[in-house]
Design a protein that fits this description.
single chain; 334 residues; alpha/beta; 7-stranded mixed beta sheet; 6-stranded parallel beta sheet; 15 strands; globular; binds NADPH dihydro-nicotinamide-adenine-dinucleotide phosphate
């Protein structure tokens, strides 16, 4: 039996934000399975800010997506046909399946997800790549300890919301920076952050000086630009700055100026460390075990925003990440 896959191809490299010229939506007939292969019906796609970077023809930690290729995307799905000894029909699997509703796999780099532990979207969020990013970025790079003041930018997003919750569990005082009063209210009232700064309506520098008068021990940065500078200006001795992302510049054609407050690193003998979650891949199982138990005992509150509309809604869904249209982990239901 053959299957027709609905796919999103990269048509044209964007300048600035992606738009309808960026993508081509196609139907592709998949070949019949060979021995050692299985067919996956993709149930949800993970929408990630990194996708914007993967479209640029530059040297990075992964090669750029090629023009005419299926867009790279993480997904979770169900095995619907199998000629593979280790993957049976009905199993839930995760991997880099691409922006498609069906994919044929040999099992390479495919892992299993237990839906009894968490729902599929949570496996792309708190128990997925963003959750792993928060866990290893905060604990291994940020080296958070009890009593620290932790500030996280992009705080109401997939990574940031988990960073803040883990920091609270470790006994830190947590300040989130996010866009808009609703997101800030969610951080303090639902997730238990100690304070939140609405960078769209408040001065981040001034508010940090007020709320964290003794300075920041850990700054977990997802945003870069002016927010990074405001945090650098408020460090304390021995601070750790975790460079996880810099979404404020992802759609810029011109490189942003470097952080103008970098001399704070000298003054406060602080470190600023670039970090990539994939370096911790062999330790994901340890993090999943810990995070699952935190989900079960309520230490972590997961949140996903599910966009409907299937593969055809891919382009619009991606935009939400850059307009602040998501709270928690953004996924597309396929
Ligand atoms: P989010 O769920 O946080 O979504 C993106 C959020 O970024 C938006 O909701 C918006 O929130 C905020 N944002 C968008 N544009 C701007 C801007 N110009 N200035 C300030 N904030 C902006 O995404 P993720 O949690 O998946 O990713 C967060 C960051 O972590 C990204 O930078 C990503 O690249 C990085 N990352 C890094 C990894 C690594 O290994 N180093 C792995 C995974 C993610 P708001 O409404 O608050 O503006």
């Amino acid at each position: 039996m053959t299957t027709t896959a609905q796919q999103v191809l990269l048509k044209q490299r964007p300048v600035g934000l992606t738009d309808e010229q960026t993508w081509e939506y196609v139907s592709t007939e998949l070949p019949a399975l060979e021995d050692g292969e299985f067919l996956i019906k993709v149930d949800y796609l993970s929408m990630d800010p990194a996708m914007r970077g993967w479209l640029n023809d530059v040297r990075s930690y992964v090669p750029p997506v090629q023009i005419g290729a299926v867009m790279r995307a993480f997904g979770i799905g169900t095995v619907t046909e199998s000629r593979h000894e280790q993957f049976a029909v009905g199993e839930t699997v995760m991997g880099i399946f691409g922006a498609t509703d069906h994919v044929i796999s040999t099992g390479k780099d495919v892992t299993r997800a237990d839906l009894a532990v968490a729902a599929a979207p949570t496996w792309l969020g708190t128990l997925g790549m963003p959750g792993m990013t928060a866990y290893f970025g905060l604990l291994e790079v940020g080296k958070v300890t009890s009593g620290d003041t932790v500030v996280v930018s992009g705080a109401a997003g997939a990574v940031g919301s988990v960073v803040g919750q883990i920091a609270k569990a470790k006994g830190a005082t947590v300040i989130g920076i996010a866009g808009g009063p609703q997101k800030c209210q969610w951080l303090t009232e639902t997730l238990g952050f100690d304070a939140a700064i609405d960078y769209k309506n408040e001065s981040v520098s001034r508010r940090l000086r007020e709320i964290a008068p003794t300075g920041i021990n850990v700054f977990f940065d997802n945003v870069g630009g002016e927010i990074l500078d405001a945090a650098l200006a408020n460090l304390t001795l021995g601070a750790r700055v975790v460079i996880c992302g810099g979404i404020s510049a992802y759609n810029e054609s011109k490189l942003p100026p470097g952080p103008s407050r970098y001399m704070s690193l000298l003054v406060f003998r602080a470190t600023m460390t670039g970090f990539l979650v994939f370096d911790f891949e062999d330790r994901y199982p340890e993090a999943v075990t810990q995070m699952s138990s935190w989900l079960e005992d309520g230490t972590l509150i997961p949140r996903e925003q599910v966009v409907e509309g299937g593969i055809a809604a891919f382009g619009d869904a991606l935009q939400l990440l850059f307009t602040g249209g998501n709270t928690g982990k953004l996924v597309l239901r396929v």
